[in-house]
Design a protein that fits this description.
The chain has 332 residues and is mostly helical. The protein has a single domain, classed as Formate dehydrogenase/DMSO reductase fold, CATH 1.20.1630. It has a two-stranded antiparallel ribbon. Helix 3 crosses helix 4. The chain is globular. Keywords: Cell membrane, Electron transport, Heme, Iron, Membrane, Metal-binding, Transmembrane, Transmembrane helix, Transport.
C-alpha cells in the first residue's frame, strides 16, 4: 500500500466524518420540525436556523462519493452497485428533503404546507437511518464474489446490526439537532430542546451498549483491532456523557461540540475497523483491499494537488457563511 492510497482512504473517511457532523444537525433540525415545534412560527424558526447551510453541508457527501469514484474505483463499484436500492432510497430522501424546504413556502393551504413539513421530517429521519444501515452492513461482511460483486439477500442488508446502526445514527443526528436548536434559537423552543435532550441521552446510552455488543458479535473488530476498537468505543461513550452533562448544566457550546463529535467518532470506528480493506466479504479471500481497489499513482497524485488548491476556498466560504448567520433566531 502506497502513502497516497493511505492518504485518500483517510480523506474519504474524513469527508464522511465532516458530512455527519455538519449535516447531522441539519437532519436533527429537520426531524424537530414536527416533533419539537408546537406552532407555525416555531416551525418557521427551525427551518430558518438551517436554511443558509443545509445544502452546502450535503456537498460533503457528494464529495466523498466523488472522491471514492476517482481514487478507489473498485470500492465505488462494489459498494454502490451492491447497495443500489438503499442508496436509491437515500437519494429519494435527500431529494424530498430538499424540495420540502422550497415547497412548504409556496403552499397556499394548510394541508399542503403541513404535507411538505411532514415530508421534511420523514426524509430527515430516513436519510441518516439508511446511511447508518449501509455503513454497518459494509463492515459486517457481505457475500462478495471473486470479482468484487455483492450478491446479497434481504437479511444481508436488513439485520439486527444494521437496524441498530441505523437507529443509532438517526438518534445521534436528532440529539445533535436539538443541541443546535439550543444554540440558534431563543425562548420556549430552546428550553423544549433541552428538555428533550435530558430524556433522550439516557436512551442513547442504552443504545450504545447494544451497539458495542453487536460490533463484537457481527464484526471482526475485536479480534483484529481490539485496542483501537475499545478506545474509540470508550471515546464515543465519553463524548455522549459529556454532552449529557453539558445539557444538564446548560452548557450549549460544549453539548453541541461533544454531542456532534460522536458522529465522526462512529465513522472513525468503522474506518479503523475496515482498514486495510474497503469492503469486507463473508469469505475473507474476497474482501477488497485498499491496495487492490485504488486508481493509479498518477491519478491519486493529480487528485491530491486539485484538493489542495480547492479545499482552502471551500473552507473559507463555509466559515464565512456560518459567521454571517451566527445570530439567534426567535419564533415570532
Amino acid at each position: 500500500m502506497s502513502s497516497l492510497q493511505f492518504v485518500w482512504f483517510l480523506l474519504i473517511g474524513l469527508l464522511f466524518a465532516i458530512f455527519f457532523f455538519l449535516e447531522g444537525f441539519d437532519f436533527g433540525v429537520g426531524m424537530s420540525v414536527n416533533t419539537l415545534a408546537n406552532n407555525e412560527s416555531e416551525r418557521n424558526a427551525l427551518v430558518r436556523s438551517i436554511g443558509p447551510h443545509w445544502d452546502g453541508n450535503e456537498v460533503y457527501l457528494i464529495t466523498a462519493g466523488g472522491a471514492m469514484f476517482a481514487s478507489f474505483g473498485a470500492w465505488y463499484a462494489s459498494l454502490f452497485s451492491g447497495f443500489y436500492v438503499m442508496f436509491l432510497l437515500v437519494l429519494v430522501a435527500l431529494i424530498m428533503r430538499g424540495v420540502s424546504f422550497e415547497f412548504r413556502n409556496e403552499m397556499r393551504t394548510d394541508f399542503w404546507r403541513r404535507f411538505w413539513e411532514w415530508s421534511l421530517t420523514i426524509s430527515s429521519l430516513a436519510a441518516p437511518f439508511l446511511l447508518g444501515m449501509i455503513f454497518t452492513d459494509m463492515v459486517k461482511g457481505m457475500p462478495i464474489d471473486a470479482q468484487g460483486d455483492v450478491i446479497g439477500h434481504f437479511t444481508d442488508y436488513v439485520n439486527w446490526f444494521s437496524i441498530v446502526g441505523g437507529v443509532a445514527v438517526a438518534l445521534l443526528c436528532y440529539l445533535h439537532g436539538l443541541n443546535f436548536v439550543r444554540l440558534k434559537t431563543e425562548g420556549t423552543l430552546r428550553e423544549r430542546a433541552r428538555a428533550w435532550g435530558k430524556i433522550l441521552y439516557p436512551v442513547l446510552f442504552a443504545g450504545e451498549v447494544v451497539f458495542a455488543i453487536l460490533v463484537y458479535v457481527y464484526t471482526d473488530f475485536f479480534t483484529k483491532k481490539p485496542i483501537s476498537t475499545l478506545l474509540i468505543l470508550a471515546a464515543i461513550v465519553l463524548l455522549s456523557v459529556l454532552a449529557y452533562v453539558a445539557t444538564l448544566k446548560d452548557w450549549e457550546v460544549t453539548s453541541f461540540i461533544s454531542g456532534g463529535l460522536t458522529l465522526p467518532a462512529v465513522v472513525m470506528l468503522l474506518f479503523v475497523g475496515l482498514f486495510p480493506r474497503v469492503m469486507v466479504a463473508n469469505n475473507a479471500a474476497n474482501s477488497i483491499l485498499i491496495k487492490n481497489a485504488s486508481s493509479s499513482a498518477y491519478t491519486l497524485n493529480l487528485m491530491t494537488w486539485i484538493a489542495l488548491c480547492i479545499l482552502p476556498f471551500v473552507l473559507a466560504y463555509q466559515i464565512w457563511s456560518y459567521w454571517v448567520f451566527y445570530k439567534r433566531i426567535k419564533a415570532n
